[in-house]
Amino acid sequence: MQDTVKKYKQLIKKRAALGHAMGVLSYDSETVMPKNGAPHMAESMATLSEELYRLRVNDELRDMLNELEANKAELDPVTRREVELELKELKKLERVPVEEYSAFDRLISEASIVWREAKRNSDYQLFKPYMKRIVAASKAMAGYMYPGKPAYDALLEEFSEGLSMDMLEPFFKDVKAKLVPVIHAVCECGRQADDSKLTLPFPIEGQRRLSSFVMDFLGIDTNSCVIGEVEHPFTTAFNKHDIRLTTHYHEEDVLSNLLSVAHEGGHCLYELNIGDELIGSPLASGATMALHESQSRLFENMICRSPEFIALLYPRMKEIFPLQMQDISEELLFRAANRAEPSLIRTEADELTYPLHIMVRYEIEKQLIAGTLSVEDLPEAWNSMYKEYLGVDVPDDKAGVLQDSHWAGGMIGYFPSYCVGSAYSAQIYHNIAKEIDIPATVAQGGVKPIVEWLTDRLYRFGKLKTPEELSRSVLCGEFDPDYYTDYLTKKFTELYKL
Amino acid sequence: MQDTVKKYKQLIKKRAALGHAMGVLSYDSETVMPKNGAPHMAESMATLSEELYRLRVNDELRDMLNELEANKAELDPVTRREVELELKELKKLERVPVEEYSAFDRLISEASIVWREAKRNSDYQLFKPYMKRIVAASKAMAGYMYPGKPAYDALLEEFSEGLSMDMLEPFFKDVKAKLVPVIHAVCECGRQADDSKLTLPFPIEGQRRLSSFVMDFLGIDTNSCVIGEVEHPFTTAFNKHDIRLTTHYHEEDVLSNLLSVAHEGGHCLYELNIGDELIGSPLASGATMALHESQSRLFENMICRSPEFIALLYPRMKEIFPLQMQDISEELLFRAANRAEPSLIRTEADELTYPLHIMVRYEIEKQLIAGTLSVEDLPEAWNSMYKEYLGVDVPDDKAGVLQDSHWAGGMIGYFPSYCVGSAYSAQIYHNIAKEIDIPATVAQGGVKPIVEWLTDRLYRFGKLKTPEELSRSVLCGEFDPDYYTDYLTKKFTELYKL
Q1: pTM of model > 0.90
Q2: Which of A65, A474, B275, B368 has a CA 20 to 30 Å removed from the CA of B179?
Q3: What is the ipTM of this complex?
Q4: Catalytic site positions of B
Q5: Closest Cα partner for A422 from A354, A338, A478?
Q6: Quick check: A13 and B47 CB within 8 A?
């Protein structure tokens, strides 16, 4: 058996190396690669992706895993959990015909290119045939991977184990019932602060120094995490010692980068604090997308939009941008960071209206997969839901149905994780606050005890425990969406004196 | 047979994808990766490197190549040349015991880390045991790969086919006899220009704009070539549409980056202009290191240090750096770009003294491999040769024997390619000048006809023709080092009115 463990670990190592390479190629494509390098890069990545598939699904691995599973009592806990997850993954993948797997890969790589072009020209017709194929292929994949499950539940599960329509229906119903009235009240109260001065140009060089300020505040070691610049920020971790956080600098929107670094910094803290004993193991990453997102939302919204953090930030901004900050008070900076206002673009949405952006996508995805909405009618459905939920008129598909890259990337079922993550973060904050005085901690200039609390209950385990165990651990029990709706209602009622 | 061609091309494609990934990983390590990512990156690269070796040396490939070789009359010219080179490479590699191949890989990856540390502390003793192992392993590898050849000839051949001690002995003798007196005369003439004002701080942001100016002048499409920032500049091409040029900005030395971009730009032009019909083929890269270096030297020294280029550069520098350039005349800028002065560091050496830096390394490598110099006595030999050839006292090993990364990287035998490349460039310039008025072309603001001449005779072929054919094509006959020594003698005699 020891021999099998050794052989298994060797295979895993080879696969990890290839996965690492794919990660770097993908990061490089987004951050460094010259434009003309794209086609060749896509070809190399497709070739390596096939290779990676062969390393994930093959007879040798299946035999090894079955042997290890049969002797699981003798395995150390890390290997035992690896084997459990590997077998689950293998069984899931081997039900997908290999040609369809590759075809899906090719489809989304082509679709992503076409989507970019379609978005640029606000031309949904161009993207439509790809969207049609992606919906069909996603349904098919869902059927192969999770037979017996409703297709959309399968897609939700793929990104965040435990998410399902049964869970999301009441959640979104609650969100809609409780938050829509708050949004209406905010819109009607006439108490928006005039933060137009914050759109003066803030030179990028100074904004880079603000990024460092946020990173320092979060206690992120820049020897393990670097900042790259991209169109749409994301975080990718090759391992806990090499994390790539990305941001986008807008001269005329200094808060955008700041809060983006805070958000990605939350993802980063999760990966940075995974236990050392998991290094090199496939268990060494965040457990689900929803749990990951709970961390980015926690640090972005609940820590870095807090009055205590703004009080730290304000003098630093005055120092770096004396001219631009001349007429801006600390109060105004705080109000600007917490401004709520229905808008068109999800990635620019505030904390209060954000869940409604997700709700639109959830409704649409659910219906597309169920077949009750056709790809043909998608833009119309989108526009009418934006009008209904957010009260905004969508001027074109660029600012509407084409705004996100997810569908083109084959990620139907991903969006709800964002919103559930936000909801988790409210419950988690509540739990931490029972043990730690969060505002006082932030006011002292850091988040160390908060990160320690989270490390203890969540981060260090990676995927060693199940998503269910980890959620319970960090939520201190069942998920209760009331924490989220209560938090948002209270916060914005106070802010806007509703 | 068509089936074999197809299978062979598939294998090549997989290998190319893996090679592409390794290239990106290596580039990422140098330019982006956070420090703590190094150990894991090294592990992934070692794993992939073993995989790459298996794709280069295996029975299936050998059988395919033998079959294709036996039917070579039926192959298209690209595939025919590929098969020829692949077979040669395969035969060479399969003579190396696989454990020794891997051990060498591991050795140089460890050695490079130790060398960095040793250089930082100027501590040759720390590096010495690795140097000892590298010399022994290089000799062993040379014996396996090129049986019957003197070991140092084998190492020279490995980087530039056609280079040998028989060729280099008279070359360096000539260089020494003709150039050492010129260097002495320069030192004694007392006509160094006072270019101390060029060491004022030139902000990096402005220097970046100068890099763009040089790129534009060379006609390099930034959609295919991006600039990265590193400690020691290099160029790496993943394919002709994705080239990574690197540079280093020194605030107090504005010419350093400028000329570095010109140098790397020469490498870039070679790769950019490889024929489209070679895309995806292993033939799609420069033919030898010496030929590659001939291009970087040509564009750095003979084009971008020319009075015509300086005349274009001067007003641009005045525009970007009005304060710093206040008291600097065009004449002074030209003199500074062409200053000759014996110094300690090869990478900072001027055109005239550069070959002597290489000569030191050539002598030492030759003797180390022959066993007539011990690793123990290396720093002493280095220091005494620097005194003898360049008249400088080496203060410590950091500025001496530890200055270059090559030996730690297992690249014994590489240095002479630099110098032969420089010598080629003089002969190539002479040949181009017979057909094109180079100074007038440069004065008009570009190098297009020059690049076309070089593309026609050299670039487009990649490795399709032999290095011998390509050298003859671009040198217009036999290599004649007199062009080089005559060029340097004439240039510096005039400059310094000797």
Answers
A1: yes
A2: B368
A3: 0.92
A4: 264
A5: A354
A6: yes
Record: contact B40-A21, CB cut-off 8 A: no
Whole-angstrom distance, CA of residue B107 vs CA of residue B418: 25
Subunit contact B40:A238, Cβ cutoff 8 A: yes
Tokens 């005369």 belong to: B185
Nearest-by-CA chain A residue for B228: A32
Q: How far is B227 from chain A (nearest CA, A)?
A: 9
Give the pair of three-digit tokens for residue B26: 């290596």
What is the DSSP code string of B127-153? HHHHHHHHHHHHHHHHHHHSTTS-HHH
Return the residue in A18, A20, A27, A240 with the most chain B beta carbons within 10 A, the one to mutate for interface testing: A20
Sign of the CA dihedral with B107 first, then B109, B114, and B120 last:
positive
Candidates A33, A45, A242; nearest CB to B34: A242
pLDDT tens readout for residues A342-391? 999 999 999 999 999 999 999 999 999 999 999 999 999 999 999 999 99
Please state the separation of Cα B448 from the chain's center in Å: 23
Tokens 């290191």 appear where?
Answer: B289
Residue type, A116: R
**How far lies A52's CA from each of A18, A55, A102, A344, B124, in Å?**
7, 5, 11, 38, 43
Q: pLDDT at position A197, please?
A: 87
Which DSSP letter does residue A377 get?
Answer: G
Interface test with A, best of B45, B225, B242 (most A CBs within 10 A): B242
pLDDT in tens, A420-474: 999 999 999 999 999 999 999 999 999 999 999 999 999 999 999 999 999 999 9
Residues of chain B positioned with their CB less than 8 A from the CB of A238: 37, 40-41
- Determine, for residues A40 and B51 on separate chains, whether the beta-carbon distance falls below 8 Å: no
Q: How far apart are CA A370 and CA A360, in angstroms?
A: 15
pLDDT single digits (tens) A287-344: 999 999 999 999 999 999 999 999 999 999 999 999 999 999 999 999 999 999 999 9
Q: Is A264 a catalytic residue?
A: yes
Question: Which residue shows structure tokens 């098919």?
Answer: A140
Distance from CA of B44 to the nearest CA of A (A): 4
Q: Are B244 and A44 inside 8 Å of each other by CB?
A: no
Q: b/e string for A271-304 if b means 16 or more Cβ within 10 A?
A: bbbbbeebeebbbbbbbbbbbbbbbbbbbbbbbb
Out of A82, A157, A158, A264, pick the active-site residue: A264
Residue with tokens 């040669």: B88
- The 10 Å Cβ neighbour count of residue A385 is 18
Say how far residue B293 (Cα) sits from the centre of its chain.
5
| C-alpha pair distances (Å), A59 with each of A91, A107, A424, B460 | 11, 27, 40, 45
Cβ atoms B29, B41 nearer than 8 A: yes
Under a CB-based contact definition with an 8 Å cutoff, are residues B93 and B145 in contact? yes
